[in-house]
Amino acid sequence: SKGEWATFMDKEIHEQPRAVAETLRERTDASGLLVLDELRIPAHVLREVDKIIVIACGTSAYAGQVARYAIEHWCRIPCEVELASEFRYRDPIVSQKTLIVAISQSGETMDTIQAIRHAREQGAKVLAIVNTPGSTIAREADAVLVTHAGREIAVASTKAFTAQVTACYILGLYLAQVRGNKYGDEIADYLAKLSEVPAKMERLLGQLDPVVEVAHELAHSASSFIFIGRHVGFPVALEGALKLKEIAYVHAEGFAAGELKHGPIALVESGVPVVVIVPTPRRPELHRKVVSTIQEVRARGARTIVIAEEGDASVEAWADTLVRVPQTPTLYMPLLTVIPLQVLAAQVATDLGYDVDQPRNLAKSVTVE
Ligand code: F6R
């Protein structure tokens, strides 16, 4: 039941600290190393992997895009992310050394099922990250990493996304451990920082009034939103735009911050809301560029909504709305920065009087191709 919440989506947004904590639980031994007995693919097979292809649809594919940054950085294995509905049709190069990572909340998405079958026919091993253990994808995969988000009822995915991203970090760190890319104490340190995220999510959920206010302000006036991000902020921007489209029926597009000048900046005119996900100032090479993008859109009259780390003073002058997120390592930032975007979409949809949990034309699991 929804309990105290107006919608399942609201409830599920607030269940994210728990979804992440549950997904992390009981996956380490006393020394802080990962133990994934459930994985069922032997370590020697994982050591041989020379390419990873993540296959998924929609929000789950955006979780995969976040995963790519972590997996390539930690494990030095080339990692591609492909929409399941496109995968088969490009004659993908798949071998016995390819690890397919299929990500699906429902485990019943037909596009993803068909892509898995195609990859397995060519000898690839398939590891499924699913929220539904008995599902078709879980049964057909060689190995399963279960996300413990609990049942997700709202059509728009929220807690399943953050649980998927968490599972991807676990997978990335496990591969780094098994393949010897990282020492045990480094793995333990990465995991310790990850386990601090649920408390940070909890705190963040308590400081989102600016998001609610800007949603009230723009719900009836803005006809289009732009979301921009760089590095792991880029898939978060895509996810923010998808949420707004699917539940509030407002046109929205996500762009890589660096791509704006190659065309999309032409869309920015007076009053257009631009949501910017700002990297930590501790990564100056990323941060500096995103701040200058905010200045550029502001100079063209954009209504800026800036998601930035606590303590980052450099953005204050350029933000019409400023949303603060707790500090965390760059690769983990999507677990936090996505939350204000979920709340923005839910609040705009609510203010417009729509059924947030059951948007028109959409089903919770898409069992047709
Ligand atoms: C968006 C959303 C969809 C799903 C997509 C894949 O909020 O929920 O984009 O992410 O249909 O579904 P699963 O993860 O069940 O394969």
Total strands: the figure is 10
Overall mean pLDDT: 95
Low-confidence stretches: none
Which bin fits the share of residues in helices? 40-55%
Bound molecules: fructose -6-phosphate
Largest β-sheet summary: 5 strands, parallel
% residues in beta strands: 15-25%
Shape category: globular
Q: What is the topology, as strand order, of the major beta sheet? A: 2-1-3-4-5
Number of contiguous helices: 14
Calculate Rg over CA atoms: 20 Å
| Run of helices and strands | HHHEHEHEHEHEHHHHEHEEHEEH
Secondary-structure class: alpha/beta
Through-space gap between termini: 31 Å
EC number: 2.6.1.16
Protein name: Glutamine--fructose-6-phosphate aminotransferase [isomerizing]
Catalytic activity: D-fructose 6-phosphate + L-glutamine = D-glucosamine 6-phosphate + L-glutamate
Subcellular location: Cytoplasm
Written overview of the protein:
By secondary structure, the protein is α/β, with parallel strands linked by helices. It is 44% helix and 15% strand. It is built from 14 helices and ten strands. It has helices at 8-14, 16-24, 43-48, 58-75, 84-87, 110-121, 136-140, 159-178, 184-195, 197-205, 209-218, 233-248, 284-299, 334-351, and strands spanning 51-56, 79-83, 98-104, 125-130, 143-146, 224-229, 251-256, 273-277, 303-309, 321-325. The strands form two sheets. It has a five-stranded parallel β-sheet with strand order 2-1-3-4-5, sandwiched between helices. It has a five-stranded parallel β-sheet with strand order 7-6-8-9-10, sandwiched between helices. Helix 4 (58-75) packs parallel to helix 8 (159-178), helix 4 runs antiparallel to helix 12 and helix 11 (209-218) runs parallel beside helix 14. It is globular, with a radius of gyration of 20 Å. The chain starts with 7 loop residues before the first helix and ends in an 18-residue tail after the last helix. The model has no long low-confidence stretch (mean pLDDT 95). The protein binds fructose -6-phosphate (F6R). It is an enzyme of class 2 (transferase). It catalyses: D-fructose 6-phosphate + L-glutamine = D-glucosamine 6-phosphate + L-glutamate. Homodimer.
